[in-house]
Amino acid sequence: WIAVIMPAYRQVKNCGEPIEPLGVKFDIPIGNKIVRGRLLRSVLSGTDVPIFFVEQDDYFDRPELYRHKGEDYRDNCERFAFFCRAALESIRLLHLQVDVIHCHDWQTALVPVLLYEQFQRLGLVIGAQIVDLTFERLAFALHFARDTGAQHFEHERLLDDPVRPGAQGRRSRHPKRPRQAHLRAAMVGPHQSLAD
């Protein structure tokens, strides 16, 4: 079993494929604010592979994915910090049973850190024991200026959880899951295809 989680870009919503809202909303802490998102669902054309789209129009309803008129969006860091946390929240809220999370490209590089720092440390288990991170073109990974969102990646920020006050610092121990013959996976990325 495999599922894909990706942003609900404008191009996705206008692609002509059927996409339905799931009625699942979530609040993600980004710096000193809370940003609301919601989930949409579709199926990869010609398959039964579910695709879950993270909708947040301020971040993803834009003319291009990462830049406009040759300039990177100044809030790319903030956009994809939100997406990484939203992807993990999606797995948790949808009760997806996954063994492996495959993170594709720089936009998802925060997922492994968040999985440990905000989910496992706080006892928000989502089941994944393995995180696989691949980069398509590492040379295109962005460098962020401090005033454009890099502060979201500071260690102390990763430990804060304003959505669940008092949750910081709680630890839980989770027994190792038995090895299974079939792995369930969630692919998390900014632009996915089965070829990825």
Structure characterization notes:
- The protein is built from five helices and nine strands.
- The two termini are 16 Å apart.
- With 196 residues, it is of the alpha/beta class.
- α3 packs across α4.
Structural class based on helices, strands and sheet pairing: alpha/beta
Number of strands: 9
What do the pLDDT scores average to? 74
Helix content: 10-25%
Shape: globular
Q: Spans of 5+ residues with little confidence (pLDDT < 50)? A: 158-185, 192-196
Largest sheet: 7 strands, mixed
Distance between the termini: 16 Å
Order of strands in the sheet with the most strands? 2-3-4-1-9-7-8
Order of helices and strands: EHEEEHEEHEHEHE
How big a fraction of the residues is strand? 25-35%
Alpha carbon gyration radius: 16 Å
